[in-house]
């Protein structure tokens, strides 16, 4: 018996296997629980699943590596199943070939507990897969050290080894994965690339104490197209190490494109207004200033900060009915003479042209002013 390989604790089940999977030694407690098994193959010591797990460990576990924790089911003296919590490693006995050592402790009720966990996990996965909300989880095999500076945390999020832990069917549809392709087996960086927008996204997570709602990332579909994603993110942190990022996503690509088009259109309108030599002010039906051009500022002495969003009535009377009882607003173009009160206090007589924006029930109107001392024909 290799006494160095077998701990002396009376309650430990210790089994020693050779490279072929044959039991070559066992502790006294193991013999009392399992019977005289020396020389028997691993399949006669453990159930089929556990025997295969031990053979797999014999192939994958490196000599000198830390003991590998696992759950096993051993076969008792009377053939009953004995669930155990175990750790497995390689040991050497001088010049003798290396041997696989299993140190185990019986765990009453363990099998029932494991089955409950398996059933619970399967149920939760079913809920996630059937959800119409896109769900995801990134798990870091190499945890992110949160004790470091923000720049280093951002770098680790994108460079540390990680993988998808859970991505449901709704998630796969948003990212346009082909049918049958498992999202969870794809590289994280393929869909969540490192770019300035996503670095800012991670910084927002850090600044918000690792729990955020409705923040933007720019991800990549399976076909390579960029998409705007609105994210709700939560985290799993243990002892200052980030182990998982998880949350839900919403595709807002079309909304962002429309938003960008509106911004571009507003910039175009602003450029046009700035280039027109005639003073122009845009007001809504409630007389509040919506826009004005530099020529209007030059004429009146009022600037945009003083006027935008404010009622124009104090500097330009729009309440007094026009000749014939007409109002300044409506679906038709209007023209009249008005006095403009300049910032200096001076009154400037102007020929005013009003044009509605839109054909039906317009809410905004463009007022073009031309200084004059005579009434229009």
Please describe the structure with a list of short key phrases separated by commas or semicolons.
alpha+beta, 5-stranded antiparallel sheet, 3 domains, 377 residues, Beta-Lactamase, rod-shaped
Question: What do these coordinates show?
Answer:
The chain is of the alpha+beta class and about 375 residues long. The chain has three domains: about 15-110, 2-Layer Sandwich (Beta-Lactamase); about 130-250, PAS domain (Beta-Lactamase, 2-Layer Sandwich); about 270-370, Beta-Lactamase, CATH 3.30.450. Helices cover about 30% and strands about 35% of the residues. The protein has ten helices and 15 strands. It has helices at about 30-35, 50-60, 110-130, 150-160, 170-175, 190, 195-205, 255-275, 295-300, 305; strands at about 15, 25, 70-75, 80-90, 100-105, 135-145, 160-165, 210-220, 225-240, 240-250, 280-285, 290, 335-340, 345-355, 365-370. The chain has a five-stranded antiparallel β-sheet. A five-stranded antiparallel β-sheet has the order 7-6-10-9-8, sandwiched between helices. Strands 12-11-15-14-13 form a five-stranded antiparallel β-sheet. Strand 13 (about 335-340) and strand 14 form a beta hairpin. The longest helix is centred in the last third of the chain and has 23 residues, at about 255-275. The termini are far apart. The model has no long low-confidence stretch (mean pLDDT about 85).
């Amino acid at each position: 018996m290799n006494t160095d390989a077998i701990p002396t604790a009376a309650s430990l089940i210790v089994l020693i296997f050779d490279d072929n999977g044959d039991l070559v030694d066992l502790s006294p407690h193991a013999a009392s629980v399992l019977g005289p098994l020396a020389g028997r193959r691993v399949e006669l010591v453990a159930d089929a699943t556990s025997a295969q797990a031990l053979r797999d460990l014999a192939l994958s576990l490196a000599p000198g590596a830390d003991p590998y924790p696992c759950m096993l089911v051993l076969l008792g003296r009377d053939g009953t199943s004995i669930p155990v919590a175990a750790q497995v490693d390689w040991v050497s006995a001088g010049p003798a070939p290396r041997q696989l050592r299993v140190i185990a402790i019986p765990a009453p009720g363990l099998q029932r507990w494991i089955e409950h966990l398996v059933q619970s996990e399967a149920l939760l996965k079913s809920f996630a897969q059937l959800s119409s909300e896109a769900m995801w989880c990134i798990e870091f095999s190499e945890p992110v050290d949160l004790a470091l500076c923000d720049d280093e945390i951002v770098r680790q999020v994108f460079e540390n080894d990680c993988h998808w832990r859970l991505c449901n069917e709704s998630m796969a549809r948003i990212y346009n994965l082909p049918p049958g392709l498992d999202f969870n087996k794809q590289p994280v960086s393929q869909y969540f690339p490192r770019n300035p927008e996503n670095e800012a996204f991670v910084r927002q997570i850090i600044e918000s104490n690792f729990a955020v709602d409705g923040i933007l990332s720019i991800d990549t579909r399976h076909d390579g197209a960029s998409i705007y994603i609105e994210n709700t993110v939560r985290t799993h942190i243990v002892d200052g190490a980030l182990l998982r990022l998880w949350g839900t996503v919403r595709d807002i690509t079309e909304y962002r494109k429309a938003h960008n088009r509106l911004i571009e259109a507003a910039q175009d309108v602003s450029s046009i207004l700035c280039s027109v030599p005639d003073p122009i002010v845009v007001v809504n039906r409630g007389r509040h200033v919506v826009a004005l051009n530099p020529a209007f500022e030059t004429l009146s002495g009022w600037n945009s900060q003083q006027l935008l969003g404010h009622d124009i009535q104090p500097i330009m009377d729009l309440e007094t009915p026009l000749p014939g009882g007409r109002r300044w607003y409506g679906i038709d173009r209007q023209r009249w003479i008005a006095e403009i009160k300049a910032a200096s206090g001076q009154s400037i007589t102007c020929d005013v042209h009003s044009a509605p924006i839109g054909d039906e029930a317009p809410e905004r109107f463009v007022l073009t002013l031309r200084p004059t001392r005579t009434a229009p024909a």
